[in-house]
Design a protein that fits this description.
221 residues; alpha/beta; four-stranded mixed sheet
């Protein structure tokens, strides 16, 4: 169900590392091919339920360390990318899945699906205020950012847009429309700018995030 497994994260890292340097790749659309939740969740489809909690329960320190390093590398690669990323959210977008989407430049979501930072519901503690500062970039206020994180609430369609967590709603769970509108955003908004200037603008808007990361190399993986 698109859990952010180590294998999936490594795959995403390899794609971003490879294609960000490819002159024939101008941007990305990230979506899911999983049609439904295996546990129901009101029969909603799934974009990503987030972190691989089963890996963490193994209590393998070396494996857990590698997992969180890979997660941090994904965070880093998404933020330093020179190319626009669109998240086409075709289902429930939860915790780490929500962070994956929020690191994209633009998010479209089915209006009857939700996005949620529900870590507190699973007893996951935020050790510093970096997540708070990141969520505040979207909510625009301290109170709203705290509300998103403290309640672990699921924000559907219009409310998710009101909180700044998504940019556009798509009706009727129409996958063709979701992808068509995502491609339209890329082609008629992000691709209209000169590439180098747009890349510089993207980087400048994320400097406060990027400065917290050291440079990752292939040898680090």
């Amino acid at each position: 169900v698109n859990v952010l497994s180590l294998e999936m994260i490594d795959g995403l890292n390899n794609i971003l590392s490879k294609f960000d340097k490819n002159k024939y790749c101008d941007g990305y659309i990230i979506t899911s091919n999983v049609p439904k939740s295996r546990r129901g969740m009101d029969k909603l489809p799934i974009f990503s339920p987030g972190y691989d909690l089963s890996l963490m329960r193994k209590k393998d320190r070396a494996l857990t360390k590698r997992y969180f390093f890979a997660l941090q590398k994904l965070d880093y690669l998404q933020n330093i990318s020179s190319k626009p990323m669109i998240a086409a959210l075709n289902g429930a977008t939860i915790a780490g899945g929500a962070l994956l989407a929020l690191r994209c430049d633009y998010r479209l979501m089915f209006d009857d699906c939700f996005i949620s930072m529900n870590e507190v519901k699973n007893g996951i503690k935020f050790r510093d205020n970096s997540i708070f500062k990141f969520i505040k970039r979207f909510t625009g206020s301290d109170n709203r950012a705290v509300y998103v994180l403290q309640t672990g609430k699921s924000f559907y369609g219009k409310e998710a847009k009101e909180y700044g967590l998504i940019d556009k709603c798509v009706k009727n769970r129409d996958m063709k429309q979701l992808l068509s509108q995502s491609l339209n955003v890329l082609e008629n908004e992000y691709f209209m700018a000169e590439k180098e200037a747009a890349a510089i603008a993207r980087k400048s808007g994320r400097e406060d995030i990027i400065k917290d990361y050291r440079d990752y190399t292939d040898e680090d993986a």
